Amino acid sequence: MSDGIFLGLGAPEKDGGIPQYLNLRRANRHGLIAGATGTGKTVTLQGIAESFSALGVPVFVADVKGDLSGISMAGSPTAKNADKLVSRAKEIGIADYSYADNPAIFWDLYGEQGHAIRTTVSEMGPLLLARLMGLNDTQEGVLNIAFKYADEEGLLLLDLGDLQAMLAYCAENADTLSARFGNVTKASVGAIQRQLLQLETQGGDHFFGEPALDIHDFLKVDDKGRGYVNILAADKLMQSPKLYATFLLWLLSELFETLPEVGDPEKPVLVFFFDEAHLLFDDAPAALQDKIEQVVRLIRSKGVGVYFVTQNPIDIPEAIAGQLGNRVQHALRAFTPRDQKAIKAAADTFRINPDLDIETAITEVKTGEALVSLLQEDGAPGVVQRTLIAPPRSRLGPVDAKERAIIQSISPCEGKYDTAVDRESAEEILAARGQAAAAAAQAAKAKAEADKAAAAQAKVEAKQREQELKEQARRDAAAAHEAAKPSGFDKAVQSATRSAASSVGRQVANELGRAVFGGSSRRSSGGGIAGQLVRGILGSLFK
């Protein structure tokens, strides 16, 4: 089968053995590589990955131990394991075996051993974040409200700082948001913030940000038509299992949402190898497992194959394990009841071979051997065969720092992701709004205090003015009173005038009385009395 990947030579028969080929048209039906430590899983993974690359299929591998970085360099005849590799190649009939490198791009969520991988909080979305953090329905609803409000207000949620700021805003404005969107409680916001803090302490602050990964950079081929092998440095990342699971699930979800439907293409668009796959499922909530199952089930139609690599096949939930059509099972050890359960479970997943005791064979296969069952052209699983695995052509072992730097310098993504960008987003906008509101409140307070002080001063000044006016009025009244009093000379003149007038009056009256009423002969009669009366009247007039 020339259009497939040669995995190795099956159990010898009269014709010398059965070649085991991974059908490229069925390679997007996913797979499993399992086996105890030291049984050859990583070598098998490396050989399959480099074969995909040679056939023009881009590959993604999580390099947990650091040794998969050697896939970027050609093997060497002076390497300590060179004789074994050449011997195995001859044993299984590879006549053209030679050493070869593979085009590679190094990636690292921390940006230390490769291009930084980032995504934004908005691209992750509230649903996936809620499932990753194990939020309950109420908390998930609050998280959705935060995303909804941020979208309405044009607030970009790029990194964890933006989301934390948005949640703090929701807590401070819980009453207003509750009236619009439903109940928002500070307790729910606090629970979400604590989960985000846990994610941040595991390195989530490195993963969330810009520039965000363009998923098409995982789909590159070189000028020779070989698919690039995208190698994620995961040795440090493994210490943060929640972040590791977050990244892998996001990557699958992003591919599913971005890539078009292609059905079953002639060869996969991209193949993933997830080493230490149990970390995806350890302590994962049921909702998260459901999401992984959904993505694995559906992403096949996008032409993406997912291969889980793990020590124990029972690490993979049954619903997901049922989607893995291509299987390579290295040796398992039956030391514990759990190991025995794993052996039986692994044996039950294979198509029965009447010539092979599968349970026994699982414990007997040697390093570099495996039980292999691959999907056939019609999609049916092949009969399980005990198989000698083909040796890789690239280096078995890690690259050194100098070699890594050289490969990075010729990367097609060189310079694109290496410098973080922190543009204005929700955190900065909300902080600016808070500062503006605080400044406005301070200004209003200062104005109110100034107005109060001005009013008090005006009151004091008004009172002072009133007192001044009263005092002025008093002085004016006193002055007027003084001005109205006559002087001593005036009094003398007035007194003399009145005396003169009174004397004149009396004289006039006497004369008039005599003229009217006659002389003294009449004094005894009524005429004397009339004269006195006239004199009195005239005297009054001259006073």
Automatic annotation (TrEMBL):
Q: Basic and acidic residues bias located where?
A: 467-484
SUPFAM superfamilies cross-referenced by the UniProt entry: P-loop containing nucleoside triphosphate hydrolases
Q: What Pfam families does this protein's entry cite?
A: HerA_C
The Helicase HerA-like C-terminal domain, residue ranges: 14-522
Q: What residue spans carry the region label Disordered? A: 467-496
Q: Which InterPro entries match?
A: HerA_C (IPR033186), P-loop_NTPase (IPR027417), T4SS_component (IPR051162)
Q: Please state what the protein is called.
A: Helicase HerA-like C-terminal domain-containing protein
What is the species listed in this Swiss-Prot or TrEMBL entry? Sphingobium yanoikuyae ATCC 51230
The opening ranks of the lineage are:
Bacteria, Pseudomonadati, Pseudomonadota, Alphaproteobacteria, Sphingomonadales
